[in-house]
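Attaching the record inline, Q. Sequence:
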Amino acid sequence: MALAVKPAELRALIAAPHPDIAPLPPAAGRPGGVRMLRGVPYGSVEGARPLELDLWLPGPGPDQLPSPVVVFVHGGAWRRGRRDDLGVTTRSWDPGPFERLAAAGFAVACVDYRLSGEATFPAPLEDLRAALRWLGLRSAELGIDPLRTVVWGESAGGHLAALLALTHSEPRLAGAVVWYGPADLTTPRPPFDPADRATPEALLLGAAPLDAPELAAAASPLRQVHGDAPPFLVIHGEADTMVACSHGRDLARALRAAGAEVDLHTVAGADHGWYGLDDEEVERIFARSVAFATAVS
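Structure, as predicted:
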């Protein structure tokens, strides 16, 4: 006969293990010794879906030292997107961009975060901080060095990557790669209108930025710049019709003025997502980003 338990005790008994202690899923092997782990839980938020990440781990090297880390943050206007998508121009790559990073010696964590239809700002930023915490907690098991973490994001993910690099200090990140990310949610920059309640930015904040100026400022990397920021690589298309290139230029200018290290690269003829570029140019942008991450980590 089964022992009687109270409902609360039963709920605790049958619940999945907490991400802090849950066993890692089995790894799938890839050429060159790269290992891939899909759908690893890293966080649990009451009333929300489980927060997961994908891990790409490099093969064992001769020195067996802990690997530097790239935390990748996907785009999608804070409203949609997939954690394993670096953008339309890289979807056909074989091997894909994250496998390439792992082959170059990085551990890559492609992170889910709550979208604006699930929770408003600062929820996605809190989720990224939770991912950093989890990676630090499980670092020995994963063979990674959390003190050598570079955050890399594209579009809305670039915005969140910049915010994370500017506001997370324990430990300070090693660097940030920002591809065509919004830097300012407070000032009109066509096509963005801070008075419009229907923009992706307004949906992220839960209000038109003009109606919530303090929240909009807190969500603007441009307003969070300081001299102790980690090194930044900012790359933006000069023909971007969705996120004006002035976002990247102004962020880089503010970082320089504060005394932080920043490398700005604007790309002639490039629209959002590197649309309009040939494959060779996108490959060069990716290689430049990998070289930066290698140098700072």
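The CA atoms of residues 81 and 174 lie 26 Å apart. The beta strands are 28-29, 35-43, 51-57, 67-73, 107-111, 144-154, 175-179, 232-237, 262-267.

More tomorrow.
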